Structure formats: structure tokens, C-alpha cells
Amino acid sequence: MLKKCMSFFKLGQATIDLKLDSYELKPGEKVNGSFLLKGRWMKQIIKRLECDLIVQNEEDHTERMIESVTTIYMSKELPPDGSIEIPMSYQLPENLICSSPMVTYRLQTRLICENTRCVDHDEITICS
After folding, report:
1. Nearest alpha-carbon partner for 19 in 3, 2, 32, 10
2. Residue 21 to residue 34: CA distance in whole angstroms
3. Is 120 helix (H, G, I), strand (E, B) or coil?
4. Residue 8: is its pLDDT beyond 80?
């Protein structure tokens, strides 16, 4: 019963954090970093990790996925207070326009466990 209550309120769920070597990049440049998965109070079974490149246009209030950065299927146990680090590398598309107050980019990461989902957003700046 306690586990159900904690799961309902998302207490003790695993967290995801994308750490990048650089947050300012050029079109076509390689993005390097790692996904850091952290356990909390309960053991978690990690099912999938997804990351997408998203562009947001403030002028017309739209948001769209440019492409999927990675999808990793797994069945790993994340122990309480444990952590897992997964390296990542991704080549940005060549046709990206530069970031501005009207156009922003972010890497949106989702960690899917047995009963929960965790999301992380990391804004990146595209400059020429």
C-alpha cells in the first residue's frame, strides 16, 4: 500500500539528467554528454530512455520535434540511491537556423520505468 501511495504522488521515483559537454553548438556539430539516472528510495526497473531534439517558435507559438536523438530499450534495475551513467553522442542536423529570442532548441529526455515516467529538458543554443 505504501508503494502505491508513493508511486501515485511520484515520491521516490528515479530521475534523469542529461549532462552535455557544451550547450552552445553549431549546425552539424556533434553533441557529446551523458545521461545520469539516479535512484531514490525505491528500486526501479528502467524500461526505456528516449531523447528528442525539439524546436520552439515563439512567433507562432508552435513546438515540433526535429528528430529523435536516441531511444534505448533496456530492462535494468536501478537500486535505491544508486545511479547509472550512459554516454550519449549525437550529430546535429546541418540545416538548423540560429537560436534567437523567437527560436529556441532543447533536448527533451524521458525515462520510462515500470510505473512512472520522468522528463528532463536541456536548452541548447545554436549559433553560426
Report:
1. 32
2. 9
3. strand
4. no
